[in-house]
Design a protein that fits this description.
This protein is mainly β. It is 0% helix and 41% strand.
């Protein structure tokens, strides 16, 4: 059970067309993909899931109806990734 204080505020944003981010590793590269949708999404990364998230400098390319980002820097191999709607 969850209880809230009288000064608490909660905001929930439901996005019906939100894509899923898939990550695949092949050799020394990571490939991130998500479907093209009406809203624009950017990929963010963080060293810690609860830490500071920053946008990737790499821009997605369109391949077979999916946004694709290929990362070859070994520093990305131990990071978390997420999509954020602009």
């Amino acid at each position: 059970m969850f209880g809230a204080g009288r000064w608490d505020a909660f905001v929930l944003k439901l996005v019906s067309d939100a894509p899923s981010l898939t990550v695949a590793r092949a050799g020394g590269t990571l490939t991130l993909r998500w479907r093209v949708c009406a809203s624009e999404y950017i990929v963010e990364s963080s060293e810690d899931y609860a830490g500071h998230w920053t946008p990737l400098p790499e821009k997605p390319i369109l391949q077979n109806g999916q946004n694709t980002v290929i990362l070859s820097d070994p520093a990305y191999s131990s990071r978390f990734f997420r999509l954020r709607c602009r």
